[in-house]
Amino acid sequence: MSLTLLFIFIMCTIQVVTIILYVKHYRRWVTNMNGMMIAMALGMSVGILMGGTILGGVIFHGNLIESTIFSMIIGLSVGLLAGIPLSLPSVIDGILSGMMGGE
């Protein structure tokens, strides 16, 4: 993996962790709909980033099924982690959008 992709991966990981911790800290002021939107956006964007850039284009070049499965799993887990501090509908929405983004 090149240094540029490693930098992109590290910056996106820091951003996702920061957003999840921010939402967890201020969950009293986050409504259910906003929580669903946050979980959906994080799951989808991480799934697309992993599937399209890092996994699909570089690491698993030519192996479409493996990059799709791994990006779906990563998007699903990020959507799950983003939705856990908020509510069950946020978890479900984050999981489903992470899987859609990973495809």
Mind explaining what this structure looks like?
The chain is 83% helix and 0% strand. The protein starts with a helix and ends with a helix. The mean pLDDT is 85. Helix 1 (3-25) packs antiparallel against helix 2, helix 2 (32-59) runs parallel beside helix 4 and helix 3 (64-83) packs antiparallel against helix 4 (88-102). With 103 residues, the protein is an all-alpha fold. It has 4 helices and no strands. The chain has one domain.
Short descriptors:
103 residues, single chain, mainly alpha
Compact overview of the structure:
The chain is mostly helical. Helix content is 83%, strand content 0%. The mean pLDDT is 85.
Structural class label: mainly alpha
Number of strands: 0
Proportion of residues in β-strands: under 5%
Topology order in helix (H) and strand (E) letters: HHHH
Gross geometry: flat
Main β-sheet description: none
Could you tell me the radius of gyration in angstroms? 14 Å
Round the mean pLDDT to the nearest integer and report it.
85
Low-confidence stretches: none
Distance N to C terminus: 22 Å
Percent range of helical residues:
over 70%
Tally of domains: 1
Tally of DSSP helical segments? 4
